[in-house]
Every structure is written in structure tokens, then in C-alpha cells.
Amino acid sequence: MYELALTPRFERAFRRLVRRSPALQPQIEQVLRRMAANLTDPRLKTHHLSGQLAGLHACSAGYDCRIVFAKQKHPKTGTEVLLLIDVGSHEEVY
Fold it and tell me: Which of 31, 36, 54, 68 sits at a 20 to 30 Å CA gap from 25?
């Protein structure tokens, strides 16, 4: 089980995306629950990124919707934390 931490950038991108396409909200929320429960779920299509985004990961939240995140350890508890960085279309986040 992972803890999810949202960055201000992710929150702004999420609000903007949901304003444009309200139907995506439940779909993204379901993907976030899935990420917290099991990051290796094949439906997420989790993969490492390269280039300018090297060291980060991404997963699919629909046909053309991606969530970019970093895996980190919480400094005090040592638990795994998924730092959610960005959400949007393939073109927007890469």
C-alpha cells in the first residue's frame, strides 16, 4: 500500500482537466486508488520515463490521459510515497 502525496502542480492540472472533461474525474480517482493499492497492476501500464523526465514514472488513466509521479520514501516513517507530479494528455505531460 502506497501513500499518495499531491503537488500543487498536480492539483492545478487535475482541476483544469476535470473542468475540460468532467467524465475523467471518476476514472482518474479510480486509477489513483489502484495506484495506492497495487502499483504493478497491469491495467495501469506503469513505466519509467527517460530524457528530461528521467527518474520519474508514468501510468495510464485512460486512452490519452497520463499521471506522472515519483516514488519516494517518507523521511520519518520510511513508508513508500507516490509523489503525484502531473496529470493530463500524453502531449501535455511529456
Answer: 54
